[in-house]
Write a structure and sequence with these properties.
The structure is a single chain. By secondary structure, the chain is an alpha+beta fold. The protein folds into three domains: 8-238, no CATH class; 242-299 and 522-575, no CATH class; 305-468, DD-peptidase/beta-lactamase superfamily (Beta-lactamase, 3-Layer(aba) Sandwich). The strands form five sheets. Strands 1, 3, 5, 6, 7, 8, 9, 10, 11, 12 and 13 form an eleven-stranded antiparallel beta sheet that branches. A nine-stranded mixed beta sheet has the order 14-16-15-26-25-24-23-22-21. Strands 2-4 form a two-stranded antiparallel ribbon. The relative contact order is 0.12.
Length: 582
């Protein structure tokens, strides 16, 4: 039986997951019991952990440096080809996060994954997020990336494999970055050792912690009918990835790295940090609590409210180009039947919802109250909309005052789905159009986006205000498309005018949001660096997830969960490499 809602006993932890304010004080309190930096042994020859004999017979292993899960420099010989299905059994996980596990959180899901090897690459045949709900009671969905196969001296007939495996939650949108490894022959495989030592989760809710397991698995060797075509498509996709180089190639004085390595609570505060410049991603080594993560390109990131920009604004910019910018002026109540008779929603447009100026939302409710019960725990999209319909009104009219509420973005998503069906026909999913006409052309397919939990997948609607699960390559391609004002290889994919408004490149000021501005789900701050003052548009998500689009053309990425919300030091460090001053 699949689990639909967390136990009431876990409510305080999940409710905390939607808070983005007041966390700095909690962090200060937590640092007294912070774990010590990892100084455990690394993989040497011959290996002492995860030997073939242990993978075949032993029942458990301790937390290890992640070098034990990666191909070593001293690997020798050609690995056996791999082609087939791995069927994983549902199995108990060892969790160290200091909160009561949610129902199914301590279960690795029952799931079948298909792989083929291509040289020393282990290639998953399915991209994107795999929904495991029909298969058992686990809390986790799964996304996997390209791994490696190799041989080690002393392993006899056995070859080895490992790959990045991400566990993705179905509620708030956290991600566990794991690595899985096993030994195999042409006809058999060992059990799979799994360890997760990094994540984007909710620190204050006690979700930060390590995970490990030994998972039984069954290997079914098979030759896939489309094998040659699949590998050709994989190689073509791999050739479109943005080139990656060490951050040290541009950060010669180490100032950018120093910001990424800033010690907060776990001594591995930044899951991934990078700077895109002149067609290359300059990557800081992805630190974890147990060494360096071996597959940074396969890491998924739970970027929380950064989703509003990466997905919500992206969708609106695309449909403005597809239908005309009048989609921004469409009225919410015309496309949300439950709102048709509500005075507070009359006159609210899609643009108002995107910009958090709907004039709605009950007067004394917090973001916590508005998001947790009504939306996160709603069993389906219709229930969520009915819950939001009861919120009430603010005294301001639509467009008058900025009031941040993730539920506004979900209302926009629901309305946009009905708007697109009215234009395209019943059953046409708006996010499918975004994937086909925006993400696929720029090489960002397999994005991963949290939807409502309707029983019928065809009825599910993107939450849109949180729940994006991008890789760094995908996030960089979307950010680059937006920085380039929606143009890709000479084709205008997004509405240039609306993108320019979002980036502060027009006279439209957007809306005051504290010391910053808010334009079409993009934040903007004024900053002095390098002898001049300039506007910095950026995406922001809970925990300190940021994508920054600097006027110089540098794009900055920091994915984390420990609430370092001040991006100024990071921006100033990057500005020393490439200045935005005239």
């Amino acid at each position: 039986m699949s689990v639909e809602t967390p136990r009431r006993a876990t409510a305080p932890a999940l409710k905390t997951a939607v808070l983005a304010l007041g966390v700095a004080l909690a962090l200060t309190a937590c640092r007294d019991d912070a774990p010590e930096p990892w100084d455990g042994p690394v993989l040497t020859q011959p290996r002492t952990q995860l030997t073939v004999d242990q993978l075949l017979h032993d029942g458990a292993f301790p937390f290890l440096d992640l070098s034990f899960f990666a191909r070593p420099d001293w690997a020798q010989g050609d690995p056996a080809p791999f082609s087939g299905s791995i069927a994983f059994e549902e199995r108990t996980l060892v969790l160290t996060a200091p909160h009561e596990p949610y129902p199914g959180e301590a279960l690795f899901p029952s799931v079948t994954l298909d792989f083929v090897s291509d040289g020393d690459a282990l290639v998953p045949r399915r991209r994107g997020v795999i929904d495991t709900r029909p298969l058992g009671g686990s809390y986790w969905d799964v996304a996997v990336g390209v791994g490696r196969v190799w041989r080690e001296p002393g392993d006899g007939e056995w070859s080895r494999a490992s790959f990045p495996l991400n566990l993705l939650a179905r509620y708030v949108g956290e991600v566990r970055n794991c690595v899985a490894t096993f030994a195999y022959t042409a006809e058999a495989m060992s059990r799979v050792a799994l360890q997760c030592s990094q994540e984007t989760a909710v620190l204050e809710a006690g979700q930060v912690g390590d995970v490990r397991a030994v998972v039984p698995a069954t290997y079914e060797p098979k030759a896939f009918a489309d094998g040659d075509d699949f590998l050709e498509d994989y190689r073509r996709s791999a050739s479109r990835r943005i080139p990656v180089a060490p951050l040290s190639a541009i950060d010669r004085d180490g100032e950018i790295a120093e910001v990424f390595e800033k010690s907060l609570w776990t001594h591995a505060s930044t899951s991934l940090g990078a700077v895109y410049l002149d067609g290359t991603l300059y990557l800081h080594p992805p630190r974890t609590r147990h060494g360096t993560y071996p597959y940074p390109g396969g890491m998924r990131h739970g970027v929380f409210s950064t989703t509003k920009s990466l997905a919500g604004a992206l969708a609106m910019f695309y449909f403005a180009e597809r239908y005309g910018e009048e989609v921004f002026d469409a009225r919410i109540a015309d496309y949300v039947p439950a709102f048709a008779g509500l005075p507070e929603w009359q006159g609210v447009t899609f643009a108002h919802a995107l910009n958090m100026v709907t004039g709605t939302r009950a007067g004394d409710r917090t973001e916590e109250d508005l998001l947790y019960e009504p939306l996160e725990l709603a069993p389906d999209s219709e229930t969520a909309i009915r819950n939001i319909a009861r919120f009430g009104d603010y005294p301001e009219a639509p467009g008058e005052k900025f009031n941040y509420a993730t539920t506004n973005t979900f209302v926009l998503s629901y309305a946009l789905q009905n708007y697109v069906e009215a234009r395209e026909g019943p059953g046409i999913q708006y996010w499918d159009l975004v994937e086909e006409h925006v993400l696929a052309p720029i090489g960002a397919d397999g994005f991963g986006l949290l939807h409502t939990r309707d029983a019928d997948p065809a009825d599910r609607v993107p939450i849109l205000g949180l729940g994006a699960f991008p890789t760094l390559d995908v996030a960089a391609k979307i950010a680059r498309l937006i920085f380039d004002e929606g143009e890709h290889e000479g084709v205008q994919i997004l509405h240039r005018g609306k993108v320019r408004e979002a980036l502060g490149r027009t006279d439209w000021e957007g809306y005051a949001a504290g010391r910053n501005r808010y334009r079409h789900s993009f934040w903007s701050m004024s900053l002095r660096a390098g002898g001049c003052r300039f506007e910095v548009p950026f995406m922001e998500g809970m925990g300190g997830n940021h994508v920054v689009l600097l006027p110089s053309g540098a794009l900055v990425f920091r994915f984390m969960d420990e609430f370092d919300m001040d991006i100024a030091p990071l921006v100033r460090a990057v500005e020393r490499v490439r200045s935005s001053c005239p």
